[in-house]
Amino acid sequence: MAALPTMRQLxxxxxxxxxxxxxxxxxxxxxxxxxYSQRPERVPLPPNLPKQFLSQxxxxxxxxxxxxxxxxxxxxxxxxxxxxxxxxxxxxxxQMTVLDPKGDRKALFDYRRNARSVKPGxxxxxxxxxxxxxxxxxxxxxxxGIDTSVLLRNELTRVGVExxxxxxxxxxxxxxxxxxxxxxxxxxxxxxxxxxKHDRRSVENVVAAYIRQKRAFLGGNKR
Amino acid sequence: xxxxxxxxxxxxxxxxSVVECVNVLKKKRAATIGDRIVVVxxxxxxxxxxxxxxxxxxxxxxxxxxxxxxxxxxxxxxxVDGTVVRFGDNACVLVNKSxxxxxxRMTGVVGQELxxxxxxxxxxxxxxxx
Lengths: 223, 130
Description:
The structure holds two protein chains of two kinds. Chain A is built from five helices and five strands. By secondary structure, chain A is α+β, with helices and mostly antiparallel strands. Chain A has a domain at 89-218: SH3 type barrels, CATH 2.30.30.790. Chain B has one domain (7-129): CATH 2.40.150.20. Chain B has three helices and nine strands. The longest helix of chain B has 6 residues, at 120-125. The chains are: A alpha+beta, B mainly beta. The A-B interface holds A 134, 147, 149, 155-166, 169, 171 and B 72, 76, 81-89, 91, 107-109, 127-128, 130.
């Protein structure tokens, strides 16, 4: 335990000396970094420099090279932002003209504007170009321009199967509405139909009845 | 997304009903439709009639280690044309070392991805493919 200064009065003197020793050399010390000096002014070349000294100057300071100029750089490229205001919309339009020239597929799924379109809760049959169909209840319609897709749910061999189909997919032959929703669902996305309580289960018998009916109307035609 | 400890339904008549994945073959990630895995039979299918013929009933028993091919997964799968498919359960079919299915019949829908991975024997056994 250190002795208190009241006990040894001269002891505090020693303590004072100690601090002086510790601090003093630091005050006097100077580092290289602490020396600050102004950047020297550039000395201009004397106007009438004798010719024999010119060889000592670097290339850029030779009098025939003139006064050094700031580099101009290349002219900037034309801005893509001004050239094409809305590139996504233009790509969507160009793709639409290729994939859906008449616009009827777009109208079939535009459930916000078209009253006769496919709506969530409807039963839909999508036939692909390679011949195999997929039937299902529409759970949701994602309106995303050319990426518009529809989520169908069905039950095949007692296993739930969901398929999200891009409606402008060129592999799709046809999209048919088999049955409208019994009553208008109060949601736009019917994900609750995945739960066991609300599951629509298999729609195959509904679709089979529709196909039978259609065949009767068309008079023995196939499909 | 089938990985270690995943329980799958076995949808063939080999005798297993629930199997557990213990290894994914030829892949460092989770397995999906068409991938080959190693499974342990956890639950046996009850043999239909005990007395008639045990040879016909169960080809595998509980605790057997077998190879299997995944035919359905819950995790959604995107195909090249942009359609996304998701099934209600994870299911597989037992195969032997050379890749032939152990069972002779299958119940239930399978994914079309099996075609790309040359499991045409399984596809031809399946009643439906999506």
